[in-house]
Amino acid sequence: MEELESNNDIVKWTKNHGIRIPYFDEDGKYRTYRPDFLVEKKDGTIEIHEMKGGHLLQNPITKRKLDAARDWCKARKMNLRVLSKEV
Predict the structure, then answer these.
(1) Is pLDDT above 80 for 75?
(2) How many domains does the chain have?
(3) Domain span at residue 8?
(4) What is the spatial distance between Cα 22 and Cα 25, in angstroms, rounded to a whole number?
(5) Of 2, 5, 38, 82, which residue is most buried, by most CB within 10 angstroms?
(6) Which CATH number belongs to the domain containing residue 79 in this structure?
């Protein structure tokens, strides 16, 4: 959040966006997940920022969620940015 606040290219951001992205879990069950941040940049670009620990990036559920988020964002002409820190 500090990085979002200090970035001069960002106009506004929120965690309270109400976005739920649908995906199917490994058993084929319909699920949704809530991305971490919705961000608007000065150039008008809208992005979803998802924070994930490096150890989670290879997790099958994480992969399903991020694939669904990429498709969801693409359909809305938005960007997905995955931010990770290796632990």
Answers:
(1) yes
(2) 1
(3) 2-85
(4) 10
(5) 38
(6) 3.40.1350.10
Residue 87 pLDDT more than 60? no
58: CB partners within 8 A, 6+ apart: none
Is residue 9 within 8 Å of 42, Cβ to Cβ?
yes
Verdict on whether the full-model pTM lies above 0.90:
no
Query: For the chain, what is the mean pLDDT?
Result: 93
Q: Report the alpha-carbon distance of residue 67 to residue 44 in Å, rounded.
A: 24
CA-CA distance, 46 to 49, in Å (whole number)? 10
Q: Name the 3-class secondary structure at 51.
A: strand
pLDDT of residue 86: 60
